[in-house]
C-alpha cells in the first residue's frame, strides 16, 4: 500500500512532525536543499495565538468542564501550554487541518467572528509554516456574558 502524501495526519502519533521537502542537488538554490520539520505543537500554537487575536473571542476550549480540566492540566509539568488549549491539529507533509473550540463574547456576530478567526488562522499558519491549511473547523461551545465573573479574577471587595 502506498502512502498518500496529501493525507492529513493518517496514522500519525501526536508527537510526530511534518516534513516540508525542498529540491536537492547542486543546481538547486541553497534555501531548498534539505527538509524542514514542523511539529504539530508548533502549528497548534500559531493557530491558538491567531484565533485569540480576533475581537469577540473570549477564550479557547469552550465548555466549562473543558476549561476546568485545562486549568488542572496546565499545572502538570510536561503538558500542553495554555496557548494550545482548545486547539487540535492534524499535520501532514504539506497540509494541515485545524479544529478550534471557542467561547465568544455576548453580542458579537458569531458568523462574522468565525469568518475572521478562520481567515486569521489560515493566514498565520500558511505564512509561518508554508503548509496549506485545508480546513479550520470552529465549535462555539459557550457565550461569555458581561456579568459572568471569571474564576481566576480576584474579588473586587477583598481588602488589599
Could you write a compact summary of the structure shown?
With 160 residues, this protein is α+β, with helices and mostly antiparallel strands. Helix content is 28%, strand content 27%. The relative contact order is 0.19.
Q: What key phrases describe this protein's structure?
A:
160 residues, alpha+beta, four-stranded mixed sheet, two-stranded antiparallel sheet, 3 helices, 6 strands, elongated, disordered N terminus
Radius of gyration: 19 Å
Shape: elongated
Mean pLDDT: 79
- Amount of helix: 25-40%
Order of helices and strands: EEHEHEEHE
Class inferred from helices and paired strands: alpha+beta
Fraction of residues in β-strands: 25-35%
Distance between the termini: 67 Å
Question: Strand count, sense and closure of the main sheet?
Answer: 4 strands, mixed
Q: Compute the number of helices.
A: 3
Strand tally:
6
pLDDT below 50 for ≥5 consecutive residues: which ranges?
1-11
Topology:
Elements: E1 17-21, E2 35-39, H1 40-52, E3 57-60, H2 64-74, E4 87-91, E5 95-105, H3 110-129, E6 132-144
Parallel strand pairs: 5-6
Antiparallel strand pairs: 1-2, 3-5, 4-5
Task: Outline the structure in words.
This protein has 160 residues and is of the alpha+beta class. The protein is 28% helix and 27% strand. The protein contains three helices and six strands; from the N terminus they run E-E-H-E-H-E-E-H-E. Strands 3, 4, 5 and 6 form a four-stranded mixed beta sheet that branches. A two-stranded antiparallel sheet has the order 1-2. Helix 3 (110-129) links the parallel strand 5 (95-105) and strand 6 (132-144). Helix 1 crosses helix 3 (110-129). The chain is elongated and about 65 Å long. Residues 1-11 have low confidence and may be disordered.
